[in-house]
Amino acid sequence: MLLNFILLFFTALLAGGLAYFIPSWEERYFKLVLVFAGSYLFAITVLHILPELFVESANPSRMGLYILLGFFIQQILALLSTGVEHGHIHHHGHQHASEIGVWTIMIGLFMHAFLEGTLLGNEGSLTAHVHDHAGHDHHHHHGSNNLLFGILLHKGPEAFALVAVLMSVMKKRWIFLLLSIFALASPLGMLLSNYLYESKLLGGETLNVFYGLVAGGFLHISTTIFFESSPDHRFYLNKVLVSMLAFGLAISLEMLL
Ligand SMILES: [Zn+2]
Ligand SMILES: [Zn+2]
């Protein structure tokens, strides 16, 4: 748990720092990294999170509703955050970020990242659950490393985009403070969901509702990345290759880890 906390926090801090110190990297490599991370997120959602949620849910069709609701909630959060969590960086022409206000962006993004973190507090929850019912907990244990890896990959471009957006609208000295606040969101979500489970304040079934919401959010974020990476419907070979590479890696790690 502590290791996950440190990994999540510093991945966000480092990726944000990169945008801060080397802003010229933004254009050339950012889009490809974004497509890679988005594809990876899509892959673990489909390969890992969704199957697990449906298998474990006492009422699978209701789980489907939570996932749709999560998709919708993410749509609203993206209005607040101007799409920072799917790596949307508004350029100088757009005044989006300054119009909408830094605090709105921070609130939308923080809520998203906090929810996302709850998925990682489940070391006890989902594992114990699966163990109780089917006794194949080894499957889950292994997969959750892949889940962590996917979220860390997504955290990178997310933090990078946040700093890039903030740099265009505010003084530099505030940016690290806001970046640190954002970097704490997912670790705090993880600790809270872990605490709620351990203390038995919420049962595994209730926590699975949150995971369903997060899964819906992931579907929104990852598919939006696909859309925005080729808005003109042109075929970009490098993006397709990067996407396939991410799928391949996600599939391999899901089987091997
Ligand atoms: Zn967008
Ligand atoms: Zn996120």
Automatic annotation (TrEMBL):
Keywords: Membrane, Transmembrane, Transmembrane helix. The chain crosses the membrane at residues 29-51, 63-80, 100-120, 174-197, 209-227, 236-256. It comes from the Bacteria. GO terms for cellular component: membrane. GO terms for molecular function: zinc ion transmembrane transporter activity. PANTHER family: PROTEIN ZNTC-RELATED, ZINC/IRON TRANSPORTER. This is Zinc transporter ZupT. It comes from Cecembia rubra. The lineage of its organism: Bacteria, Pseudomonadati, Bacteroidota, Cytophagia, Cytophagales.
